[in-house]
Amino acid sequence: MARTGPPRRFLTAVTAAALAAAGLTALTAPAHAADTELARNGGFESGLDGWTCSAGTGKTVSSPTHSGTSALQGTPTAGDNAQCTQTVTVKPGSTYALSGYVRGSYVYLGATGTGTTDVSTWTQSAADWQKLTTTFTTGPSTTKVTLFTHGWYGTPAYTADDISLIGPGGAAPVVPAAPTGVTTSSVTATSLALSWPAVSGATSYAVYVNGTKSRTVNGTSTTLTGLTPATAYSLQVSALNDAGESSKSTAVTATTAQGSGNPGGGSGSLPAHALVGYLHASFANGSGYTRMADVPDSWDVIDLAFGEPTSVTSGDIRFNRCPVTECPNVESDADFKAAIKAKQAAGKKVLISIGGQNGQVQLTTTAARDTFVSSVSKIIDTYGLDGLDIDFEGHSLSLNTGDTDFKNPTTPVIVNLISALKTLKAKYGDKFVLTMAPETFFVQNGYQFYGSGKWGGQDPRCGAYLPVIYAMRDDLTLLHVQDYNSGPIMGLDNQYHSMGGADFHIAMTDMLLTGFPVAGDANNVFPPLRPDQVAIGMPASTNAGNGYVAPAETNKALDCLTKKTNCGSYTTHGTWPALRGLMTWSVNWDRFNNWEFQKNFDAYFGG
């Protein structure tokens, strides 16, 4: 939601901005002989070299400029303040003067990571170039600070130029020593955890598997997934900082366990590679109605779309089959149930999918939670279904302000949903199939944003599925994120990826199988899922949704993720031959498109 004014934390900066506008120097620290200019490319004459701008909102322009031929222009959106940052090396216990020239409404300049009090200054309205200045003193162990400039949510574009940081330069870093004491733990058939003591001066670590770099992490531990059962792996770690990379640690060897063939959560009864599709069971559209008995045998999981609530907050879910007036060829209830049994006899799973685009579900109370459990149970029992698919979209899930730990959520709609799912799992036992189909905004977007954010102003739905997935991780059969109808999402390479090709599916799936720090917090990491718990969600055709890719692009994504071949610009953090498969919206649209999606799946996996 767009904001029309600054947050409370910036109100104290009014005095600073007023002084700067009046040309006063009360905030400007005196220069010393050892002081130097530390901001790189502060005049933006070399484009954005040295600067990183959020969500692709920053660029350089030739007019207006304060000096030279270029300046920075940032264009905020309703969900992004167009922040551009630069990290510089500083000296502990030293004073620095930060300044810059800006134009526009609600433009901010500041520094974070100072080790003392982070600073910012701002102007509410600068029709022409206005100088902003502030000072800070670094903490006793601070060697880096991050400079930033940004606008405000939903306001017009701002311009910044001649950003300057004056103060003593920090000592050049030296290459850190090689890590020691590397150990393994939590070894399974397809994963193992790796940890090591921190190395002085290191800012990140590279992990090598059998001599090949697998990933770079900020912390001192990681979990390797997608490994082969009963296989020995040689593991090494190196330490990195701005000066370079250390030598590798002494190799340690770990052997994965024998595969059990039944990882739990209902997934053990699925084929090694499964095809999942949604069947329009309660409505008709341009794709036409498809009878359950007419769904080809290639489809391993069939999600009945949709069960919807009687009201947003009632928790009372109803499944109404498509009426004859809308679906002239709809089968009778008896035939529908018989077809479900026939599919199950052939080893297929049939689930009720709750939500969809129009079915907003908010379990705001424990009463709604209990009604959800009883009403969903009634649908499962009536039709003899294998389980439940959660397809909450729109505003069904969002996080309350202050709910920042995905491992310990406090928001009622989140807590009550988790409780309801655990109750259903306990009721139906190990064979209960639980799947989820969130949009990228609710999952991978959590790498960059989580809830309303530390300072507020963000969309509270950002990453809102993460606590549900995490809480149900041991009972979750499949997660098939909708890699469609999505905006650009930042991957683990810190680059934005957009729909339309294999790269998007590779980057989004790699995040699920590698894990990622939530909202950039290295101490709050969403752990990876097993590859057998993950399928890639794609539209079946151009009619089905935005983000359709041709079979050749689908196959490139599968090649890269399962074989590490045919990869594009994105480098994955592993290879996962046990990746479960593909999900599509929908069976009906694939039939409309002459079964292109199904045929390609069968050809690729030898179906």
Automatic annotation (TrEMBL):
InterPro entries: CenC_carb-bd, Chitinase_II/V-like_cat, FN3_dom, FN3_sf, Galactose-bd-like_sf, GH, Glyco_hydro18_cat, Glyco_hydro_18_chit_AS
EC number of the protein: 3.2.1.14
Organismal lineage: Bacteria, Bacillati, Actinomycetota, Actinomycetes, Kitasatosporales
Domain GH18, first and last residues per copy: 273-607
SMART domains: FN3 (SM00060), Glyco_18 (SM00636)
Name the UniProt record assigns to this protein: chitinase
Domain Fibronectin type-III: 178-259
Organism of derivation: Streptomyces tabacisoli
Segments forming a coiled coil: none
Chain spans, region Disordered: 58-80
Family designation: Belongs to the glycosyl hydrolase 18 family. Chitinase class II subfamily.
Keyword list, A-Z: Carbohydrate metabolism, Glycosidase, Hydrolase, Polysaccharide degradation, Signal
GO biological process: polysaccharide catabolic process
